[in-house]
Amino acid sequence: CSLTLHHTEKPKHEAVCEYRPYSCPCPGTSCDWEGSLEAVMSHLMHAHKSITTLQGEDIIFLATDINLPGAVDWVMMQSCFSHHFMLVLKKQEKCEGHQQFFATVLLIGTRKQAENFQYRLELHGNCHRLTWEASPCSIHDGVSVAIRNSNCLVFDTATAHLFADNGNLGINVTISMC
């Protein structure tokens, strides 16, 4: 970052600066890794080997065993348009046994780059369809910001079971350029 700031303005700027180090974007882990944007994919491939990467603009994100108790995160990568996208399905308890699912897409890139893309998430079932379309967030913002800003597909356990097949939930994910 080439900005010159007064020392009192520096902490506030560093919190939002596109040039600050990126943290590991993998939800549900206690990974302390930080590094440049260019190093994020290499980190994910070496430190988080369980993450599957699929190629193409249109894929199916399969979340297995959605009935597992407690908070659970399912993560997958999608590569298309010379970019990498992190697909996340997060299950968490919102209040007294009521669980919610949050599905979103993050671009392994800057906020400005994320503005160039749209994603669509679709759940299909017998005579039912649930669709969410939005622009991805940057990994700079992360899953928690997407959830806090309601920039994600949100559904409850009953809805998840409506679309699940033997405890597995397939989400069609389509990435397009704006």
From TrEMBL:
GO cellular component: cytoplasm
Reaction(s) the record says it catalyses: S-ubiquitinyl-[E2 ubiquitin-conjugating enzyme]-L-cysteine + [acceptor protein]-L-lysine = [E2 ubiquitin-conjugating enzyme]-L-cysteine + N(6)-ubiquitinyl-[acceptor protein]-L-lysine
Gene Ontology biological-process entries: proteasome-mediated ubiquitin-dependent protein catabolic process; protein ubiquitination
Pathway: Protein modification; protein ubiquitination
Keywords, alphabetical: Metal-binding, Ubl conjugation pathway, Zinc, Zinc-finger
Domain SIAH-type: from-to ranges: 1-49
InterPro entries: 7-in-absentia-prot_TRAF-dom (IPR018121), SINA-like_animal (IPR004162), TRAF-like (IPR008974), Znf_SIAH (IPR013010)
Protein's recorded name: E3 ubiquitin-protein ligase
Species, as recorded: Manacus vitellinus (golden-collared manakin)
